[in-house]
Amino acid sequence: MGERKKVVVGMSGGVDSSVAAWLLKQQGYDVIGVTMEIWDGARTDVDGGCCGLSAVEDARRVAQVLDIPYYVMNFRDVFREKVMDYFVEEYASGRTPNPCIACNRFVKWEALLHRSLEIGADYIATGHYARVCQLPNGRYALRRSAAEAKDQTYALYDLTQEQLAHTLMPVGEYEKSEIRRLAEEAGLPVAAKPDSQEICFIPDHDYAAFVRMQTEQGSCPGNFINRAGEVLGRHAGFIHYTVGQRKGLGVTFGKPMFVLEIRPETNEVVLGEAEEVWDDSLLCSRLNFMAIPDLCGEREVTAKIRYSHSGARGLIRRVGPDLIECRFPEPVRAITPGQAVVFYDGDFVLGGGTILRRGTFADSQTNTTTVGNGRMSV
What we know:
Blueprint: E1 6-10, H1 15-26, E2 30-37, H2 53-66, E3 70-74, H3 76-92, H4 99-118, E4 123-125, E5 130-134, E6 140-144, H5 161-165, E7 167-168, H6 176-185, H7 207-214, E8 222-225, E9 231-235, E10 258-263, E11 268-272, E12 278-289, E13 298-304, E14 312-320, E15 323-333, E16 340-345, E17 348-358, H8 361-364, E18 368-371, E19 374-377
Helix pairs in contact: 1-2, 1-6, 3-4, 3-7
């Protein structure tokens, strides 16, 4: 391989990142293990998922087995700003955020890559189930993982070309069962460790309580209404709800009712019946392109509107400087503002954006929708 390339591996203490470090060492890289300290509670939370004390201790033990240098790096300030503050702001604005996407883009890549390049590393690497490829057009793109059920490309769509050019994802070539087998064969102490599922800084899953501790916005009771504007009951504060939600509304209606829309400007939550949750179009902004430099004309894609969504055929077109419209031949369920929509061409990520609202550009030309810290007429 010539001169050994140096790679910093983000080690969460789990089996995937541990095997990633082992694979890269087997491939001849000069491997350094790093665990990112990203929130204050991680210092005292033994079971704090990917960043608690157990994560540090497990990653340290793996590094000892692999005989690689290991460090804990402090990224708490950038995590607070780019992930936790963003999470609170989005919920308080009536949207449903995905903090893992923000963490990947701004912390696990931007901040860690910058720090790694400063210490002379050529690459960073993680245990994500995805594959980095350079395409014939010269651009870097993510390809779906060989383990289809574990694929994580959706949560990584916002990575930049520079970040991808300096990224290795060796786990993406394997099934989960193979990763655990490799961990056992390598004698790694985390071979049987369960996967972490929760948002690390909200281990009790009470998102509304977390938001309420940071701001009062969105926590005041208001009206449940239907699309005709008729009052159906009272809600406990719109931060408790998300589009598509049926359970936990706090009011019974004699039939299943679902959240259709959250209107923070009037403190109203719109409810409707099951068939009203489906729609055939959306608008998205905060765009990032990956396999292509930009979108020209219309293009058929497979679009995923949430992490657990299997994807649906769609037709996308640019309708503004930072605005794409996606139309679906068959309606999709629960298009949720604040969530990502990711566009695929086969196994490759073309790009994606943040869902602004359901409906088409024509539907919204007379509306003004809040986007981030400003307002945008669409």
